[in-house]
Design a protein that fits this description.
By secondary structure, the chain is an alpha+beta fold. Among the domains are: 64 residues, Beta Barrel (OB fold (Dihydrolipoamide Acetyltransferase, E2P)); 111 residues; 87 residues, Efflux pump adaptor protein, beta barrel domain (Elongation Factor Tu (Ef-tu), domain 3). Helix content is 44%, strand content 21%. The chain has seven helices and 14 strands. It has a six-stranded antiparallel beta barrel. β11 and β12 form a beta hairpin. α3 runs antiparallel to α4, α3 crosses α7 and α5 packs across α7. The longest helix is centred in the first third of the chain and has 57 residues. It comes from Rhodanobacter glycinis. It is a single-pass membrane protein. It is found in: Cell inner membrane. Keywords: Cell inner membrane, Cell membrane, Coiled coil, Membrane, Transmembrane, Transmembrane helix, Transport. One of its GO terms (biological process) is xenobiotic detoxification by transmembrane export across the plasma membrane.
């Protein structure tokens, strides 16, 4: 075979490649178009089944109650029994004030209460004596009237002198006047004690109230924690003179926290109370997810409640998308397992598939917080007052 027969000409090779290039380009274009269509379809499905069923924000922060500890009475600090980062229980003593002056006033109130009880006892006995005087005067009047009645027939029969009968009439008049005086004295004696027993007498009640106030003031020299939590921002020092209302420290109960998620106003269209929320924090990352629910939305945007609110009525107005805080509750059990701190940043994802719930919180709600540690002071004061009253009643019958 000759060389001319075995070697293809260049013109024939160029024409074959030109015939294959358009088909190859079409396949590439179809593949690229298919990829874009697939990406668009995936994105549409993600939006339909994922993104359109939730609202997300990373402008969210952990919130909690910050209970300010302050004194209710003036005094000098003599002991500090809790410091920053320490856990305290409700009713635990945090700070003690010098109680010298309060103890003196408490002793005075104690003696005043005892004296009031004794004085009312004396008034009660005086009223009993006045009643006995009235009974005696009634007997005297009856006797005088009986004597006069016996002598009147003798006077008619001229067997008795008129002077004796006149003396008997005068005796009846005197007995009547004495009875009236005794009844008035008995009425006056009963006016101070009528309608109540000794313990409920107004004078005793007044002294009891003064003693109760002195007892409470004395007990308030011991400052206790109203709730269980962790101490923060301790500023009190030994020897400091504190005034009522002055902040001494703060107790933060980390068992009950929430998240304030600041959503844009165009994200609030489908957010409703009761919707489930997933929370992640920068502290634990995606390893820990908290499950909460929407419990309410703020009554206004953050700019409205700022120190210097925006003046949107001015001529240099610029539209700015506002944010509204949405309160999200957290599960206490999850908080106990993975504790958080107030102020930590978080990411919130609200499931908005069911948007039939209310937008506004119900009119009646449970108390946000409550404590009973101060009830003991009042009950102890009442028990001590009852003890003083019983000790000074003596053998009084009521």
């Amino acid at each position: 075979m000759s060389a001319n027969e075995t070697t293809a000409s260049p013109e024939s090779n160029d024409s074959g490649m030109a015939a294959k290039d358009p088909a190859k380009r079409r396949r590439v274009l179809l593949i690229v178009a298919g990829i874009f269509i697939l990406i668009g379809l995936v994105w549409f499905l993600l939006w339909l089944f994922v993104f359109s069923t939730r609202e997300t924000t990373d402008n969210a922060y952990v919130g909690g109650n910050q209970v300010t500890i302050s004194s209710q009475v003036p005094g000098t600090v003599v002991a500090i029994l809790a410091d920053d980062t320490e856990h305290v229980k409700a009713g635990q003593v945090l700070v003690k004030l010098d109680s010298t002056d309060a103890d003196v006033r408490l002793r005075q109130a104690r003696s005043a209460l005892a004296m009031a009880v004794r004085q009312v006892r004396q008034q009660t006995d005086s009223a009993g004596g006045a009643d006995a005087g009235v009974a005696a005067r009634k007997v005297q009047l009856a006797q005088a009237q009986s004597d006069l009645k016996r002598h009147l027939p003798l006077l008619a029969a001229h067997a008795e002198s008129p002077e004796i009968v006149q003396h008997l009439r005068d005796g009846v008049a005197q007995a009547q006047a004495a009875l009236a005086t005794a009844e008035a004295q008995a009425k006056a004696a009963h006016a101070a004690i009528a309608g109540t027993d000794i313990a409920q007498n107004p004078a005793v009640e007044q002294a009891r109230a003064n003693f109760r106030a002195a007892w409470v003031a004395s007990e308030r020299n011991t400052i206790v924690a109203p709730v269980s939590g962790y101490v923060a921002q301790r500023s009190v020092q030994l020897g400091s003179s504190v005034a009522p209302g002055q902040q001494l420290m703060t107790v933060v109960p980390l068992h009950h926290l929430w998240v304030d998620a600041n959503f844009k106003e165009n994200q609030l269209r489908h957010i409703r109370i009761g919707q489930p929320v997933k929370i992640t924090t920068d502290l634990y990352g995606d390893d820990v997810t908290y499950h909460g629910k929407v419990v309410g939305m703020g009554a206004g945007t953050g700019s409205v409640f700022s120190l210097l609110p925006a003046q949107n009525a001015t001529g240099n107005w610029i539209k700015v998308v506002q944010r509204v805080p949405v309160r999200i509750s957290l599960d206490d059990k999850e908080l106990d397992k993975h504790p958080l701190r107030v102020g930590l940043s978080a990411d919130a994802v609200v499931d908005i598939k069911n948007d039939n719930g209310p937008v506004l919180a119900p009119g009646e709600a449970l108390p946000a917080a409550s404590t009973s540690v101060y009830d003991q002071i009042a009950s102890q004061a009442d028990a001590e007052a009852d003890k003083i009253i019983r000790a000074n009643l003596g053998s009084a019958s009521h």
